[in-house]
C-alpha cells in the first residue's frame, strides 16, 4: 500500500472504521428475545384506548456460554478485512472481553475469523451497536447512541479496496475473502446516511441488502442490479437496550418482527452471506446468542437516589404508567406487550408507516428463506409502537424511538422539549438531575451533532401522558424511574 493510501486508511480506521460497519447490524441492533414466563401479562380487559395485545410466539432455547462465544468470536460475518492489513492501521490492546490469540488486539467490536478459503479476516460483530461506554464503563447490551452515520462511506471503501488490491492483487485468496465484505457495504452506502450523529438507519440496511438477494436461496444477484427501488428518505431509530428484549413478543419498535427472534436477528449476515446453506449454519447458532442476550441484566443507577421521592414516585408510576409499561416489584413483575396506535401515542409516524408505504421490504422477507420452514419469522406491518419495558431507563437516553428527547425531564415536559439540541457525545457527560444527556439548546441546525426535530422522522412530539402531573409529581416519578 502506498504511503499516501496508508495514511488515508489509517485515518479512516481510527476515526471512522467502527462507524462504517456498526449500522449494518440492524439485526443485532434488533436482537429481541422473548421469555415471559416470569412476566405476568396485564389482564386484557384493562387495555387502554388505542392499544392491542401482541401475542407470544414460540422461541428456541440455547446455551448462554456458547452464545457469548459465538457473539464475540463467531463468523456470522464470514468475509472481512485481511488481518494483516487491519493490523497495519488499527490496534486495541484494552481486551475488554478477555479474548485470547489474534482477537485480543482488535477491539471488542471486531471478530477475527477464518473465511471459507482459509484466509484470516477481521469482521465487525454485534457489539458495534450493542455495547458502549457510560461513565467510564463499557456496558454490553447498552445501545450505541454515539455512532456517526452522517458521512458516505463510498470513498473510504474505495480506499480500502485499493489497499487490498495493491497488497495482494484481485486474483488472490485475500481478495476473494475480502470482496463480499466490500460488495455488501458498497451497495448499501448510498442509502444509509443520516442527518444527525447518534441515529441508526437500521430499517434502510435491511432494504438495501435484500434488494440484491434472491429471496429463496439468498444468492447475490448475478447482474448486481437491485430487484426493487429503495427510497432515499431517512427512517432514523435509536438503538434499544438488549436487557429489555427478554420481555418482548415483537422484535421492533413498531411491533413488526414476529416469529423466531433468532431467525429475524441473523438477517444481519446478509451483508456477506454466500447463500441459504450458510444462512442455515448461522441460524443454528443464533438460538445460543438469544440465550446469552436473555441473560443480560440492566445496570443499576450509579448515583444517589432519594428514597422518599422514589417511594412517592412509585405510586404515581403505578397509577399513571404501569398499564402500558408494566410493574417491577420483585415477585410481581408484569409486562403487557402492548402495541399503542400511533394516533394515540402521537409520536413521529415515519417508522410506524414505513413498511406500509414501502411494502416491497416486508414482501421480500415474507417470501424469503427467512419465513420458511422451522423457526420461521415474519415482518407484519402495524400502525403503532410497542410500549417498551423500562428496566435501566436511566442509562438509555436519548428517549422515544427516534432518540429525539435528550432527558426524562424533557420527556415529561412536552412543551419544553428542545427543537434543536446538541450533546458532546462524551459518555460521562450525564445529567443526574434531568436524567439523560447534558445538552445545549440551539436556534438552528449548526452541525451534524445538532439534532433537528423539524425533519421527517426526527420529530419529538407525542407521549404527553405526564401532562396531567404536577411539577412535584414529575420529580417524584423521575426519581422512581432511577430505581428500575
Q: Could you characterize the architecture of this molecule?
A:
The protein is α+β, with helices and mostly antiparallel strands and about 475 residues long. Helices cover about 35% and strands about 10% of the residues. The protein has helices at about 5-20, 25-30, 65-75, 85-90, 125-130, 155-170, 175-190, 200-210, 260-265, 275-295, 305-320, 320-325, 340-345, 350-355, 360-365, 410, 470-480; strands at about 50-55, 80, 110-115, 120-125, 130-135, 135-140, 255-260, 325-330, 330-335, 340, 375-380, 385, 420, 430, 435, 440, 450. It has a 3-stranded antiparallel sheet. Helix 3 (about 65-75) crosses helix 10. The longest helix has 20 residues, at about 5-20. The radius of gyration is 22 Å and the shape is globular. It starts with a helix and ends with a helix.
Q: How many strands?
A: 17
Rg for CA atoms: 22 Å
Shape label: globular
Sheet with the most strands? 3 strands, antiparallel
Strand percentage lies at 5-15%
Distance between the termini: 52 Å
Low-confidence stretches: 1-45
Helix content: 25-40%
What structural class results from the helix and strand content? alpha+beta
How many individual helices?
17
Question: Taking all residues together, what is the mean pLDDT?
Answer: 89
Strand order of the largest sheet: 1-10-12
Amino acid at each position: 500500500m502506498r504511503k499516501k493510501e496508508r495514511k488515508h486508511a489509517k485515518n479512516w480506521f481510527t476515526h471512522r472504521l467502527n462507524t462504517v460497519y456498526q449500522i449494518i447490524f440492524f439485526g443485532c441492533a434488533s436482537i429481541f428475545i422473548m421469555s415471559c414466563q416470569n412476566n405476568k401479562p396485564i389482564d386484557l380487559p384493562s387495555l387502554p384506548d388505542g392499544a392491542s395485545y401482541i401475542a407470544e410466539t414460540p422461541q428456541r432455547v440455547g446455551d448462554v456460554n456458547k452464545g457469548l462465544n459465538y457473539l464475540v468470536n463467531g463468523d456470522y460475518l464470514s468475509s472481512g478485512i485481511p488481518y494483516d492489513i487491519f493490523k497495519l492501521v488499527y490496534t486495541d490492546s484494552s481486551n475488554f472481553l478477555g479474548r485470547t490469540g489474534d482477537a485480543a488486539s482488535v477491539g471488542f467490536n471486531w471478530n477475527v475469523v477464518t473465511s471459507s478459503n482459509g484466509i484470516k479476516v477481521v469482521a465487525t460483530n454485534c457489539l458495534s451497536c450493542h455495547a458502549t461506554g457510560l461513565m467510564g464503563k463499557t456496558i454490553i447490551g447498552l445501545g450505541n447512541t454515539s455512532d456517526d452515520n452522517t458521512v458516505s462511506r463510498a470513498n473510504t471503501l474505495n480506499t480500502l479496496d485499493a489497499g487490498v488490491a495493491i497488497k495482494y492483487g484481485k486474483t488472490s485468496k485475500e481478495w476473494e475473502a475480502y470482496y463480499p465484505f466490500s460488495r455488501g457495504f458498497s451497495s448499501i452506502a448510498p442509502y444509509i446516511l443520516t442527518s444527525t450523529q447518534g441515529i441508526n438507519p437500521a430499517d434502510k440496511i435491511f432494504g438495501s441488502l435484500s434488494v440484491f438477494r434472491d429471496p429463496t436461496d439468498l444468492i447475490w444477484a448475478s447482474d448486481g442490479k437491485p430487484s426493487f427501488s429503495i427510497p432515499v428518505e431517512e427512517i432514523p431509530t435509536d438503538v434499544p437496550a438488549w436487557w429489555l428484549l427478554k420481555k418482548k413478543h415483537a422484535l421492533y419498535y413498531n411491533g413488526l418482527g414476529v416469529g423466531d427472534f433468532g431467525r429475524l436477528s441473523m438477517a444481519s449476515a446478509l451483508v456477506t452471506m454466500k447463500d441459504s446453506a450458510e444462512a442455515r449454519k448461522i441460524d443454528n447458532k443464533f438460538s445460543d446468542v438469544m440465550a446469552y442476550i436473555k441473560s443480560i441484566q440492566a445496570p443499576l443507577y450509579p448515583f444517589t437516589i432519594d428514597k422518599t421521592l422514589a417511594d412517592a414516585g412509585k405510586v404515581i408510576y403505578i397509577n399513571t404508567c404501569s398499564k402500558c409499561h408494566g410493574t417491577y416489584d420483585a415477585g410481581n413483575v408484569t409486562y403487557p406487550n402492548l402495541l399503542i396506535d400511533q394516533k394515540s401515542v402521537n409520536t413521529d409516524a415515519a417508522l410506524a408507516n414505513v413498511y406500509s408505504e414501502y411494502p416491497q421490504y416486508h414482501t421480500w422477507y415474507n417470501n424469503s428463506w427467512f419465513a420458511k420452514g422451522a423457526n420461521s419469522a415474519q415482518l407484519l406491518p402495524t400502525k403503532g409502537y410497542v410500549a417498551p419495558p423500562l428496566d435501566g431507563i436511566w442509562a438509555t437516553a436519548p428517549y422515544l424511538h427516534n432518540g429525539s428527547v435528550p432527558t426524562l425531564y424533557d420527556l415529561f415536559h412536552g412543551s419544553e422539549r428542545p427543537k434543536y439540541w446538541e450533546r458532546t457525545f462524551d459518555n460521562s457527560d450525564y445529567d443526574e438531575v434531568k436524567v439523560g444527556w447534558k445538552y445545549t439548546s440551539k436556534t438552528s441546525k449548526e452541525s451534524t451533532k445538532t439534532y433537528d426535530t423539524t425533519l421527517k422522522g426526527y420529530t419529538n412530539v407525542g407521549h404527553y401522558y405526564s401532562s396531567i402531573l404536577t411539577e412535584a409529581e414529575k420529580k417524584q416519578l423521575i426519581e422512581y424511574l432511577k430505581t428500575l
